[in-house]
Amino acid sequence: MIEFHKYPLRENPGLIELAPSILSADFAHLADQIRSATEGGGTLVHVDIMDGHFVPNITIGPPVVKSLRKATQLPLDCHLMIANPDQYITDFVDAGADWISVHQEACRHLNRTLQHIRSLGAIAGVVINPATPVETLSEVLDIVDYVLVMSVNPGFGGQKFIPGAVHKIRRLAEIRAVRGLNYRIEVDGGIGLNTVAEVVRAGAEILVAGNAVFGQGDPKVNAQKLLKTAIEATLQKV
Ligand code: DX5
Ligand code: ZN
What we know:
Radius of gyration: 16 Å
Number of strands: 8
Structural class: alpha/beta
Strand content: 15-25%
Distance between the termini: 38 Å
Bound molecules: D-xylitol-5-phosphate, zinc ion
CATH superfamily: Aldolase class I
């Protein structure tokens, strides 16, 4: 089995990856839906964990992650939208999470939480909500593997893209260059054929998409179209 998650994250700077979000998939047929999105070019599986406290919705926990681990070889990118991430990080890693991201807004001791994720051998990400400035991350950017910029308020799939995310992505790319850092930039929320070019041109490299992949039609075809549009946009990047 290829250990995708072990590759140095920025071995391929500028590499565009699609992370289909299973939040919008048919939960009764998750393995089939993931297979289809993978055939369409998905290289990470984005798993939204919600607890009904940090966000007003409830989804899944470690037992489902454990089953997903058997259903795909792709890295599982677990986005924790939960009030007390420290309490559950070990459970998610044990269940098979490869990448774990925590919200800046949910972590009182963000440095410690990120170090903890890394100490367990997982890839550590930090997430910011639409109202949270990039500057709040300045002291942790050197210990994260990726930064996830929310382009909707977290909690639900199928919401409208919030344009303020674009300048945050651009800013993160600038800071990375100036400080010589290595994190990758992921974007999540409202990503579809009409928004993907803009975020990619700003510097987003990992594109989370739920509704655009699993909403209607064939996930494979949807993923292919989205990735093609994104890659074409990189060629126009200024
Ligand atoms: C929202 C989740 C997203 C969601 C995105 O809180 O974090 O990952 O699945 O869904 P779309 O792509 O439909 O906006
Ligand atoms: Zn997400």
